[in-house]
Amino acid sequence: MPETLLSPDEIRTMFSRAMSRMYRDEVPAYGTLVDLVRAVNAGVLAEDPVARDRLAAGGALGRISEERHGAIRLGTAAELATMRRLFAVMGMAPVGYYDLSAAGVPVHATAFRPLGEAALAANPFRVFTSLLRLDLIADPDLRDEAESVLSRRTIFTDACLALIAAAETRGGLAPAEGERFVAEAIETFRWHPVANVSHALYRRLHGAHRLVADVVAFKGPHINHLTPRTLDIEAVQRQMPARGIVPKAVIEGPPARKVPILLRQTSFKALEEPVTYTDGTTTVAGSHTARFGEIEERGLALTPKGQALYDRLLAATRAEIRPAADGSNAAEYIARLREVFAAFPDDLDTLRREGLGYFRYAATGRPAREGDIALDADALVAAGLLTAEPIVYEDFLPVSAAGIFQSNLGDDAAQDFRANPSRARFEADLGAPVHDLHQAYAEIEAASLARARLALARDAAIA
Ligand code: OOG
Ligand code: NI
Fold first, then answer.
1. Can you tell me whether residue 195 is helix, strand or coil?
2. Alpha carbon of 282 to ligand 1 centroid (Å)
3. Which homologous superfamily is 8-298 in?
4. Which protein residue has the closest C-alpha to ligand 1 atom 1?
5. Residue nearest to atom 5 of ligand 1 (CA)
6. Distance 113 CA to ligand 1 centre (A)
């Protein structure tokens, strides 16, 4: 009899735990941050039964302490395509296209994450995955050299590639294979203290853009941060210095609000780590700054209408004042952001009735009558027949991502690339289209409404 296969959800949880263990070893400050986030989350849940019930209703209570995202940066189309197959083994699909060139960072990206409610509730582990765009590098000689260095490296172990192929042909992995797969896959994300290039080439790559050096100079796409989810980002931010971690001055994303929307993030500065550079004969002891820590708080997922309002208000704020990298105008920026975002409704009812966010509907159990069934969702909620709970945002924000990139690459890292989205090229390199970010939420909302309406209809038939 064939052995039972592990579910992709199980493999994802094994992988996410293994990654967290590895990053705790490699970057001790990450472990400190995880411990702090746990303590703050436990405090919030103990003090705020409403928040606890809301999380429990959305199926999110169990996942909070497991929840984290990571980020990697890849160098070639082939690496990206294989990475898609690797993540597919653990039920992670590419969602969304992020063009960071507009923000002065020469990459474009997607996020690999589970789709669907059950998989997200099991473990929402995500990896923000960027692909370097050498086409945005001006110097043609440097571009050729970078391409040739990248074309010679292999970032996956042979055993990892064999297990990906086995999972594809057999539709999954048996338990022992799953364990082996996780151990092999982790190798790709490990830090390599010996660079892939000479110190001279590192300097030139670094001169073109720090990010180019971070991708091209190394043997693999080291995981550059791992981010736990907190229920109170302001509290964690306040308590970080007492634990010896200095956060960046401004939290990226929307201001503090009664109803959290989208995503708020902050990070601590990247470490300067010792690296040996070598051209095969001469070695140079140097350093590189890449890996950092980050925390995030997640709120309501916004519809395209809500997202457009968010984008407009953020752009309006940033047209007036931009947070300086040294934190010198942090208070002014935060104050202005709050003022401008006063135009964004801040109660769940208005957010839903104005179609700004996505909601999960459920029948309250109050007896429905024949005529009720024809009412629209808003009327059903108003009549007390349906509840509507906010759906959590599972994705990323390009402006925040650019802020995070910048804060750990150094303050002079922004360059003036023309906004230059290239989604078709990205999807060709990926070997598949990316899933539409909004469709994933719209489907969850629509399915919940259909289920709730069925329950009402059954109810009315019995009455
Ligand atoms: C990724 C930055 C994006 C986030 O949370 O927005 C990101 C990177 O620095 O490689 O992780
Ligand atoms: Ni991040």
1. coil
2. 34
3. Uncharacterised protein PF07063, DUF1338 (3.10.180.80)
4. 71
5. 401
6. 14
424 burial level (CB within 10 Å; 0-12, 13-18, 19+): exposed
Nearest ligand to the CA atom of 398: 1
Mutate to test the pocket of ligand 1, among 296, 405, 406, 409 (most ligand atoms within 8 A of CB): 405
Q: Are the beta carbons of 422 and 99 closer than 8 angstroms?
A: yes
Nearest CA to ligand 1 atom 6: 401
Tell me which of 105, 225, 248, 408 to substitute to probe ligand 1's pocket, judged by most ligand atoms within 8 Å of the beta carbon: 225
Amino acid at residue number 332: E
Q: Which residues contact 286 (CB under 8 A, 6 or more apart)?
A: 199, 202, 274, 275, 276, 277
Q: Kindly give the interhelix angle for 8-26 and 77-89, rounded to the nearest 10 degrees.
A: 120
Burial class (CB in 10 A: 0-12, 13-18, 19+), 164: buried
Residue 37 in tokens? 């986030």
| Residue 396 CA, closest ligand 1 atom number | 6
Q: Angle at the Cα of 105 (from 22 to 12), degrees rounded to 5?
A: 30
Give the C-alpha separation, 142 to 205, whole Å: 7
**Which bound ligand lies closest to the C-alpha atom of 227?**
2
Q: Who surrounds ion ligand 2 at CB < 5 A?
A: 227, 294
CB of 128 closer than 6 angstroms to any ligand 1 atom:
yes
Residue 74 Cβ contacting ligand 1 at under 6 Å? no
Burial 78-90 (b: 16+ CB within 10 A, else e): ebbbbbbbbbbbb
The CA-to-CA distance between both ends of the chain, in Å, stands at 50
What are the residue boundaries of the structural domains of the chain, listed by start? 8-298
How confident is the prediction along the chain (463 residues), in pLDDT tens digits per residue?
557 999 999 999 999 999 999 999 988 889 999 999 999 998 888 888 887 777 776 666 667 777 899 999 999 999 999 999 999 999 999 999 999 987 788 999 999 999 999 999 899 999 999 999 998 888 999 999 999 999 999 999 999 999 999 999 999 999 999 999 999 999 999 999 999 999 999 999 999 998 999 999 999 999 999 999 999 999 999 999 999 888 888 899 999 999 999 999 988 877 888 999 998 888 999 999 888 889 999 999 999 999 999 999 999 999 999 888 788 999 999 999 999 999 999 999 999 999 999 999 999 988 888 888 889 999 999 999 999 999 999 999 988 888 877 776 665 555 666 667 799 999 999 999 999 999 999 999 999 999 999 999 887 776 6
Residue 311's CB is within 10 A of a number of other CB atoms, namely 14
